[in-house]
């Protein structure tokens, strides 16, 4: 990273009431001053707003408001200026072109946040949390992202790392006095600390399933034979005519995906082609896609017509789709067309034939009967993933992998103590554990990791 003065549009592209352009760097104020003749910006206090005209030579480009943030009290810790202009894309383009002529350059993706990280204002997990806040699409993901932005995971990791670092120092000291065969680090106390760290790491790792559901949504595959009511159910859940409904078998030939929010959680509903043997080439592709979607789903909602006489085909289909980690909900549909004894019989049949745990719900999507029961089951699935005793939730794949590596390193340290392996190897494994924990906050990192993280940010952030 260098000290170039950078600029970029911070608001979304397109027409709006206002747009904002950010400028940051040692020369941010002189660069903007060249186009803002009405006031001497170098004499203004930090966190002040100034009205005037943004100029290119003698030409007025727009009437603007400038917000000044002096180092180190800015997002990047550098001198920064934010230019609020009337939200015309053309005006924004003209202002950026002028700033570049004045000595700035266009910012790269995530460069403002990268500078905040490199200058020590935030750690790496907080930088990633900023991207998560921007991308949050539901209340649960927003809350978790804000918690991470406040340093939630960093605080947890720092406590573990500090305790571990004390023992590493003592082990390193032993290496300096190797010839005297002395132990400065109490192995019993170290084992107790490692057990404590192991419990905490396990708790954080287990929270990832819940965190992933919050961040990316829970995939729900709606499966069943043709005309079981899959598309009707999708429309009822979404409260709109999203899928074509017809009495003709095989109407849905491709998958339809929509987002449904329930109690602050996002669910990715996938309506699929009816499962059956078919000679229709296009429908067969749809059936194949349906099975593929189940392989990647968290929840399988299998629909069966409550009026069916023989459920053997449904049972065989369900058995072929099951996985140990798949939540199964069987819905007997069209209950408005049958008597209760029919769907009671259906439940008895499925309970006898399917060993996998499942919930059984009876619904009429047309009459909107018991659809809320299905929503409650979906919501309950996500809530059960959350470990109540753990306030920090892991949502980031990079953090998850670093925690797994840390846990593996802790196991190796424990083995080294148990089998009284050499102090050199013990020190090596301890350093490994420290390094993997440090990867989360960015205390240990490399340019490739940074490049991958910040390349996913928008240009103005």
Automatic annotation (TrEMBL):
SUPFAM superfamilies per the UniProt record, alphabetical: P-loop containing nucleoside triphosphate hydrolases, TrmE connector domain
Keywords (alphabetical) are:
Cytoplasm, GTP-binding, Hydrolase, Magnesium, Metal-binding, Nucleotide-binding, Potassium, tRNA processing
Q: Where does GTP bind?
A: 227-232, 246-252, 271-274
Which residues are listed for (6S)-5-formyl-5,6,7,8-tetrahydrofolate binding in this entry? Answer: 22, 82, 121, 461
EC no.? 3.6.-.-
Q: Which family does it belong to?
A: Belongs to the TRAFAC class TrmE-Era-EngA-EngB-Septin-like GTPase superfamily. TrmE GTPase family.
This protein is called what? tRNA modification GTPase MnmE
| Organism in which the protein naturally occurs | Chryseobacterium nepalense
Q: What is the lineage of its organism?
A: Bacteria, Pseudomonadati, Bacteroidota, Flavobacteriia, Flavobacteriales
**Recorded name of the encoding gene:** mnmE
């Amino acid at each position: 990273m260098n000290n170039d003065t950078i600029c970029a549009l911070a608001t979304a592209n397109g027409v709006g009431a206002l747009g904002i352009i950010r400028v940051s760097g040692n020369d941010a104020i002189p660069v903007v001053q060249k186009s803002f003749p009405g006031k001497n910006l170098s004499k203004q206090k930090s966190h002040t707003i100034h009205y005037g005209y943004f100029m290119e030579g003698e030409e007025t480009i727009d009437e603007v408001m400038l917000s000044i943030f002096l180092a180190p009290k800015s997002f990047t810790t550098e001198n920064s200026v934010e230019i609020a202009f009337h939200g015309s894309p053309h005006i924004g383009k003209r202002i950026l072109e002028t700033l570049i002529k004045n000595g700035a350059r266009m910012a790269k993706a995530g460069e403002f946040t990268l500078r905040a990280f490199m200058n020590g204002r935030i750690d790496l997990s907080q930088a990633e949390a900023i991207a998560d806040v921007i991308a949050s699409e539901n209340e649960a993901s927003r809350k978790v992202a804000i918690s991470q932005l406040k340093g939630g995971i960093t605080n947890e990791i720092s406590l573990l790392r500090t305790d571990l670092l004390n023992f590493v120092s003592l082990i390193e000291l032993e290496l300096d006095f190797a010839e005297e065969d002395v132990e400065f680090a109490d192995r019993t106390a170290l084992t107790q600390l490692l057990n404590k760290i192991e419990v905490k790491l396990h708790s954080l790792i287990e929270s990832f399933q819940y965190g992933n559901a919050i961040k990316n949504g829970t995939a729900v595959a709606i499966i069943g034979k043709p005309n079981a009511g899959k598309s009707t159910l999708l429309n009822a859940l979404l409260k709109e005519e999203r899928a074509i409904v017809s009495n003709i078998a095989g109407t849905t030939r491709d998958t339809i995906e929509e987002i449904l929010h329930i109690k602050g959680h996002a669910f990715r509903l996938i309506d699929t082609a009816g499962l059956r043997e078919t000679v229709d080439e296009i429908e067969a592709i749809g059936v194949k896609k349906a099975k593929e979607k189940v392989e990647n789903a968290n929840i399988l909602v299998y629909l069966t017509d409550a009026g069916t006489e023989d459920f053997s085909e449904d049972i065989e289909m369900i058995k072929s789709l099951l996985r140990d980690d798949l939540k199964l909900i069987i819905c007997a549909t069209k209950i408005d067309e049958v008597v209760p004894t029919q769907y009671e019989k259906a439940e008895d049949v499925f309970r006898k034939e399917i060993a996998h745990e499942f919930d059984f719900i009876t619904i009429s999507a047309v009459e909107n009967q018991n659809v809320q029961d299905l929503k409650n089951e979906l919501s309950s699935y996500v809530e059960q993933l959350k470990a109540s005793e753990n306030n920090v939730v892991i949502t980031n794949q990079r953090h998850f992998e670093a925690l797994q590596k840390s846990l593996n390193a802790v196991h190796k340290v424990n083995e080294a103590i148990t089998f009284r392996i050499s102090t050199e190897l013990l020190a090596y494994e301890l350093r490994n554990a420290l390094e993997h924990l440090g990867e989360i906050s960015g205390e240990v990192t490399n340019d490739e990791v940074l490049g991958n993280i910040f390349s996913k940010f928008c240009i103005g952030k």
